[in-house]
Amino acid sequence: MPAAGLLAAGCGGNGDDGDGFATTPPGRLPAGGGDDADVDLLNGALAAEHRLVAAYLSGLPLLEGRALADGELFLSHERAHVRRLRELVGSAGGTPVGPRPSYDFGLPGNGRDILRSLESLEQQTIAVYLQVVPRVADPLLRATIASIAACEAEHASCLLERLGRWPLPTAFVTGGS
Amino acid sequence: MDARLSRRALLAGASGGAALALVGTGAVGGVGIARAQAGSDAEILTRALTLEQVVIASYGAALRDGPGEPRLHTLLRRLRRQEREHADVLASELDTLGVRAPAVPGDDAALARARAAQGLRHPLDQIVTASDVARFAVELENAQITLYLEAVRELGAPRLLTLAAQIMAAEGQHATVLRGLLSELPEIVVPSPFETGDAAIP
Known about the structure:
Chain A is mostly helical. Chain A has helices at residues 35-59, 65-91, 111-132, 139-162. Chain A contains 4 helices and no strands. Chain A is globular. Chain A starts with 34 loop residues before the first helix and ends in a 15-residue tail after the last helix. Chain B is an all-alpha fold. Chain B contains 8 helices and no strands. In chain B, helix 2 packs across helix 3.
């Protein structure tokens, strides 16, 4: 796959049929405090997950060996997160945001660039979830969000290891926020 | 008025003892509810710190009694150091709430009792090989993930919710690295899209 394809990585294949634009960009979340606020927070997380799905879809063709096996598994996890978040938004009476038509992931030239980009995106997504946790009113919802954040942290650890870096950089995972 | 700020002010004004005494008394009104939540938060933090101390002591036992492989030792020391960082922050939060930190297991017998109380089953005298140590450690990390997941459900103070989620994610990373010692299969290393601490030990 040409690296230039990553400039406009579509996010198809995940069953979404939204208008393609997240109303709440990843990293910018509304205040919490009730069911409606929970929907907005969940949609913010969902937008971040759509971006990760797109990143893995775009990056997989440049990965090989164990990194590719990791990437394929992690993509399946991100899709599971998308499904769960869509269910949660729907059951709360909201409308799940869909993926954007394209995402700008720069111009990675090789698998190592892809791993760096994916690790960075995982960290950004962790930061989004950690912003969501204290704002969500429903305790069970908070637990789901925390369990997803921990999974993203595990992905980040594996990606760091593939990059030859120490996989446990800090005692408190913040996503760099 | 900012509800979070007013709650912090209430917490700052409540002594830990008073807060704990109000738990379960059915106190009504904003002040009573806030103090009861502070007491509940203190109980949860105490549970978390108790387990962190057991984990720290368990890693110490593994370093002392386990195989002397340098790379494994480096990992175990790093894990223990991060657990100590967790323990230090939890103790500081408890101190803020006016609650004394729980006692640290003082010897192997106390550690064995504390491990049993936490439901940890891997025997201390069966950490002979690197795989033994990895399984022993995954059990520790799983127990912590489970506890912090409960904390995320039950804690009231927003900053403590964030802290619990941050530590839970770190424990998830620990478990991942340890599972990586036992298998190269990614579905073993990161077994679920939802980390809940109940993944089977490889």
